[in-house]
Design goal:
The complex is a heterodimer. Helices cover 72% and strands 8% of the residues of chain A. By secondary structure, chain A is mostly helical. In chain A, a hairpin with a 3-residue loop joins strand 1 and strand 2 (105-110). Chain B is built from 34 helices and two strands. Chain B has helices spanning 2-24, 28-32, 34-51, 76-99, 106-125, 129-147, 154-185, 190-194, 197-201, 206-220, 229-232, 238-247, 252-264, 268-290, 295-316, 319-350, 366-380, 386-400, 405-428, 447-465, 468-483, 499-516, 518-525, 529-532, 536-558, 563-586, 588-597, 603-621, 625-645, 649-670, 682-708, 716-727, 732-740, 742-765; strands spanning 56-63, 68-74. A two-stranded antiparallel ribbon of chain B has the order 1-2. The chains are: A mainly alpha, B mainly alpha. Chains A and B meet through helix 2, helix 4 and helix 6 of A and helix 30, helix 33 and helix 34 of B.
């Protein structure tokens, strides 16, 4: 299954894809992108990695089980709505703050970002939760095929 | 917030009951009985205002847009019911501790019983229609749990399900009725609706409202022809029968009718429906009671008859009738609660509930026997007991009624006779005659078992001798709440020699006569049980069977497990429904010419469209999966190109990503699919093509039509304007997703998570056909 070209290319592509997915997530509020697209790119990166190497390596690279991403993502999205309640506004109303160090940083950060982060994690988790087991079974079968030949 | 916390405390206590039972052991019944005890005191104290004619109200707004607020009100009627529920509740909890002593699941039993108690209190205290309904369902569910408490017995499970289906089905009708009532009245508070009675009675929807509410009330209060579930519910442990199925829950329907009688009552339809069904129930319950030998079933049928009497009285609705209603209600709760507890004690001490197998028990169980006889005399309605006053008032009410007096008087007389006969059977059979050998050697029950009857039965005597205890403080306010006006109430045992007294005497004689011929009656009935098989219980069986058949039939038809069938059903339904609306609204010519009018297509757009069509055709005609998949990929990427052309880069990007992952997914799934084969025949292919083309055509026209028709101001303008100032983002799509419509997105990602876990479960649960050998 492993191919040298694919493996080398993936080693280069993988960080780029992950960076790109985070880039999409961060710029999503102003330019095309966002948590959903970002999550899909990240998932695609891991799927590519798993094709180039194998699923167990990918699971190790992920560090956490896909369902943990789903859970943390949902939690993140749900929690991001809570600050609004403290301000006596409807649940999930946005709340923005600004971090400003003159000359260096000027970031507007709001609860919608954490919501989007939640979406990102859920999409990543769900996609991998479905694709990785399928790949595992595919690997098993091709091993079977090799055993028989 | 006294009433609110009173009700909610019950639910909290229900949760804690098993733990309390574990700590307090044998004393748990007494400890838990503190709750209804405190509730009774609180209600009695807080009810002083209600007695003075001022209802106490409190509301906790919840979803006020939906008319939902948790509001409680304490007026005379609520007070009477509330005190009955909490008062008998104290005795029942103590009784349960003795009756189920040592039962491994006693803690759970307490929990169910408290759950019921809190629901029932909420039901009679609720002022909001929807809150009332929630508590109503709460009583149905707790009744289900309690009837089926002995869940190893199949009959208990069946009886529980039957009670749940009958009362739950009625509850569904009731919900419809209450919703209609709230919409028609424009208000969800019953206290406000009571003032709008004339408006509602004159409304065109009055008929449907009344029928739906009556179905709800009749099923709950076991009125003919829904009465059959109540005797079967006697499978429950006896504390439950004493409490739910005679003193309180079955009176919920009666309560509702009384509560709504200022709003809905007084019409021709109301009077005839209530007197008709009430009267029929009185007779049916009375006759069937005499055919029983199981003491609990006998009492259950006599309860049905009593419930019929209450309905009848509400139907007559005159001042005299409502006064009779209040007295009868209280009297019945006292003696029937006591009799059920006695029945449970007999069962507990002798090991049988068959009246024929008991006899002479007065010698070994003197306290129980005395109380049983006292309560039975009460059931018979003989002076100087409280129920005698109720019976006199009942006769006076039917004698005064304006409609079909003869029929009503006859019904009342007959049912009075049945009551007397049933009472005599219960009082004489088990306690007099020679002592019979029973499965268990009988001896006097422990105090926890006779405490209830000892409190309740003499109360009937005390109130009979001096009814003044309750007239002003309890009955008058309740009567005023039902009638909507205060009426003087004076109760006394002696009404003089009049028609009512004569009727009372006649019913006593008839009843004793019926008792004398009881053995003959039962012999005559033997062999004719088949006739009962055609009754409403049989209709229930047939209905349930038919329901199950229809369910399995339509499941096999619609949920047959073939994905292609699901897709086909969805597309055909959508096309037919939306297509029909489109055709009737727009007309065929307009639909056909519209695309031509708006023919503004660039060259590259046309080329892209052609490419999509070609790729789709190729996907259908492909003779290998990989080719079909590649063709589908082409379709997906072309669609995302279209998104790009029309200025939706977000969508385009997402589409490309989804398509890429879908292709990967497909490739992985290939391993699991059988060899590619053309499975469908020519006919199926043509049919599928037709459906697909129709679906596509519909979507195209729909998009074109919605583009030109504006039903309401589109919201996109708002989003465009407010995206940056309010959402701090220039990407409107994203601002909508994570800010303006964040709740929708939250719902979507939740569904996505569940779907992901579901797919995973399907993949893993699938039996491994290719186990490594």
């Amino acid at each position: 299954m492993t191919s040298l070209i694919l493996g080398t290319a993936t080693r280069l592509l993988m960080p780029l894809l992950l960076l790109f997915s985070i880039f999409l997530l961060l710029r999503g509020h102003n330019e095309p992108g966002g948590g959903f697209a970002g999550g899909l790119v990240a998932a695609a990166a891991f799927v590519l990695y798993s094709i180039a190497s194998d699923v167990s390596t990918t699971r190790r690279a992920l560090r956490f089980e896909p369902q943990n991403f789903i859970g943390v993502g949902l939690l993140c999205a749900i929690l991001s709505g809570l600050p609004a309640l403290l301000l006596d506004k409807p649940y999930l109303s946005s709340w923005w703050g600004q971090i400003k160090v003159p000359g260096f940083i000027d970031i507007k950060l709001g609860t919608p970002f954490f919501f989007d982060l939640g979406v990102y994690l859920v999409v990543l988790g769900v996609t991998l939760k479905i694709l990785l087991p399928l790949e595992e079974q595919a690997e098993l079968q091709s091993e079977d095929a090799r055993d028989f030949s | 917030m006294m009433l609110t916390s009173l009700v909610l405390c019950g639910f909290v206590l229900a949760l804690a009951a098993p733990a309390i039972h574990r700590v307090a052991r044998g004393a748990a019944g007494y400890v838990l009985a503190l709750y209804p005890f405190v509730a009774a005191i609180v209600l009695a104290v807080a009810g002083q205002k209600a007695v003075a004619g001022q209802a106490m109200r409190e509301a906790l707004p919840w979803a006020s847009e939906l008319g939902l607020s948790l509001s409680f009100s304490l007026d005379g009627l609520s007070l009477l019911f509330g005190l009955m529920i909490s008062g008998i509740g104290v005795l029942v909890l103590i009784y349960a501790g003795g009756y189920l002593k040592g039962h491994p699941q006693l803690g759970r039993f307490y929990a169910y019983l408290l759950l019921f108690m809190a629901s029932m209190l909420g039901l009679v205290l609720a002022d909001n229609l929807l809150a009332l309904f929630v508590f109503w369902e709460g009583t149905s569910i707790s009744s289900y749990l309690l009837i089926g408490f002995n869940h190893r017995s199949e009959t208990a499970r069946k009886a529980a399900l039957q009670a749940l289906l009958v009362t739950g089905g009625g509850g569904l009708a009731l919900l419809g009725g209450l919703l209609l009532l709230g919409i028609v009245g424009g208000n969800w508070e019953m206290s406000a609706l009571a003032a709008q009675g004339d408006l509602i009675r004159a409304h065109a929807q009055y008929g449907p409202i009344l029928i739906l509410v009556l179905v709800g009330a009749f099923t709950k209060s076991a009125q003919f022809p829904f009465h059959f579930w109540l005797p079967n519910a006697m499978e429950a442990p006896t504390p439950v029968s004493a409490y739910l199925h005679s003193a309180t829950m079955v009176k919920a329907g009666i309560y509702l009718l009384a509560r709504l009688s200022p709003t809905l009552g007084g019409t021709e339809m109301w009077t005839s429906a209530l007197t008709l069904f009430g009267g029929a129930t009185m007779i049916v319950g009375g006759v069937l009671a005499l055919l029983q030998t199981d003491i609990k079933r006998l009492l259950a049928y006599s309860t049905i008859s009593a419930l019929g009497t209450l309905t009848l009285l509400l139907g007559i609705g005159t001042t005299a009738a409502i006064q009779a209603f209040a007295v009868f209600l209280l009297a019945h709760a006292l003696y029937k609660g006591a009799l059920f507890m006695v029945a449970g004690t007999l069962d507990h001490e002798t090991g049988t509930r068959d009246l024929e197998k008991m006899g002479g028990l007065r010698r070994v169980m003197p306290i129980t026997a005395a109380m049983a006889i006292l309560a039975a005399v009460s059931l018979a309605g003989v002076g100087p007991l409280f129920s005698f006053i109720g019976k006199e008032l009942l006769f006076e009410a039917v004698l005064e009624s304006e409609h079909s007096r003869t029929l009503l008087v006859g019904t009342a007389l007959l049912s009075g006779a049945f009551f007397v006969a049933a009472a005599t059977i219960v009082a004489v059979k088990p306690f007099f005659g020679a002592l019979q050998a029973t499965p268990k050697a009988a001896h006097e029950a422990p105090p926890s078992l006779w405490l209830g009857p000892v409190v309740l039965a003499p109360l009937g005597l005390i109130l009979g001798i001096s009814p003044g205890f309750v007239t002003k403080s309890l009955l008058s306010p309740a009567i005023a709440a039902i009638l909507g006006r205060a009426e003087p109430l004076k109760l006394s045992l002696w009404h003089g020699f009049n028609a009512a007294l004569a009727l009372s005497g006649a019913s006593l004689l008839l009843g004793l006569l019926a008792y004398a011929s009881w053995p003959a009656l039962r012999r005559a009935q033997r062999g004719r049980e088949v006739l009962l098989g055609f009754g409403p219980a049989r209709w229930y069986e047939v209905g349930l069977f038919a329901l199950n058949r229809v369910a399995s039939l339509q499941t096999r038809l619609l949920q047959n497990g073939y994905l292609r069938a699901y897709v086909m059903t969805i597309i055909v339904t959508t096309t037919a429904l939306a297509g029909y609306t489109l055709l009737t609204r727009e007309g065929l010519p307009a639909l056909l010419t519209r695309p031509l009018q708006e023919w503004d297509v660039r060259f590259y757009e046309a080329a892209l469209a052609a490419l999509i069509v070609l790729a789709a055709y190729a996907a259908v005609r492909a003779d290998s999966r990989l080719a079909a998949l590649a063709a589908l990929g082409v379709v997906g990427y072309c669609v995302s190109l279209i998104y790009l052309f029309f200025g939706a880069p977000d969508l385009a990007m997402t589409q490309v990503l989804v398509d890429t992952l879908t292709v990967i997914l497909f490739v992985l799934v290939f391993y699991h699919l059988p060899r590619f084969a053309s499975l469908s025949g020519k006919f199926a292919r043509v049919r599928d093509a037709a459906i697909a083309i129709c679906g596509g055509a519909l979507m195209t026209t729909l998009v074109l039509v919605t583009n030109t028709v504006t039903l309401t101001e589109p919201i996109s303008g708002y989003f465009l304007e407010n995206s940056l100032p309010k959402g701090y983002g220039r990407n409107i799509v994203n601002v909508i997703l994570v800010d303006f419509r964040a709740l929708d997105t939250l719902g979507e990602i939740t569904v996505l998570s569940l779907a992901g876990i579901g797919v995973f479960a399907l993949l893993k649960l699938r039996p491994h056909r290719e186990e490594k050998s």
